[in-house]
Amino acid sequence: MKPLKTGLAVLSVMALTACATMPSPGYYPGGVALRGVADSQEGFANSRLVGCEVPASHTLLPARLSVHPGDAVPLQHTFTFGPYGQQHIPLQCVDHWRIEPAEAATLSADRRTLHVSEAAVPDGVITITVTANTHPHRLMLPVLGDGEFDVLGNWRGLPGQDCFGSPAPNEIHFGQDGFALFALGLGPGTWDDRRAFSFDRSTGVLRLGDQSGTAHIDEEGRLVISAMRLPSARSPAPRPVDLEGYSQELDWTTCRLAFSSTSTYR
């Protein structure tokens, strides 16, 4: 009976070890576990990161800041290095990733794409936590229902647009912190203006500072902002003069500018 008991004891230990080493749902290891995995963001690999000393300020940048069930969302893991801007963090320098709730989404093999489940619950939130050099960073993405949209994320102005001679912003970032950042082309890779905003998903009303207008997604997937004077690199053209010599007021309610979705990597 002794050999049988010993064999059962060994099997029990093996089973416990397997359970202990099996990753929990939503957990994705990094580092050596990704050895040999091709990084789809190899093009950003010219990083000034030394010895995987990832700073506590590292961040995860999604292609958009709200998602729908079934979406595939590219993710870029970066840190800021002085005047050189955003720098890529290689896969081997990450401790691990975690998704909550685990059933709401999965990560691709190289951890660079978030695949939102078709069963993700609208009005819920998907939380992605990436830990590198023991420093955690948390990203929260609201899940929208069918037909809903949000302005959150980065939007690039279509070329050649203007209102009364004022060109459209090169890029707008609507952040989860309730502030909109505007790149006007005054300097490479910089945000030139910052304003508080709010957006009502049910009515499409967009408020920017003390202005109120509307925003919607057109049939080509572009964000169209109407009836607002957005920050611009150039002031409007001289106002037309009426028959009595008075300058006419510019009617900004007629302004309509379109923007295409773009990555948040700047």
Attribute tags:
266 residues; Immunoglobulin-like; mainly beta; 8% helix; Lipocalin; eight-stranded antiparallel β-barrel
Description:
- With 266 residues, the chain is mainly beta.
- It has two domains: 25-142, Immunoglobulin-like; 153-262, Lipocalin.
- It is built from one helix and 19 strands.
- The protein has one helix spanning 2-21; strands at 27-29, 59-62, 72-80, 86-88, 96-100, 105-107, 113-116, 125-132, 135-142, 153-157, 162-163, 166-167, 171-174, 179-183, 193-199, 205-208, 211-217, 223-226, 256-262.
- The chain has an eight-stranded antiparallel barrel with strand order 10-13-14-15-16-17-18-19. Strands 2, 3, 4, 6 and 7 form a five-stranded antiparallel beta sheet that branches. A four-stranded antiparallel beta sheet has the order 1-5-8-9, with no helix packed on it.
- The radius of gyration is 24 Å and the shape is elongated.
- The N and C termini lie far apart (69 Å).
- Residues 8-20 have low confidence and may be disordered.
Query: What would CATH call the architecture of the largest domain?
Result: Sandwich
DSSP strand tally: 19
- Our count of domains comes out at 2
Specify the CATH class of the largest domain. Mainly Beta
Which fold does the CATH topology of the largest domain refer to?
Immunoglobulin-like
What sequence of helices (H) and strands (E) makes up the elements? HEEEEEEEEEEEEEEEEEEE
The residue fraction in helices comes out at under 10%
- Point out poorly predicted stretches: 8-20
Provide the gyration radius in Å: 24 Å
Tell the overall outline: elongated
- Mean pLDDT over all positions: 86
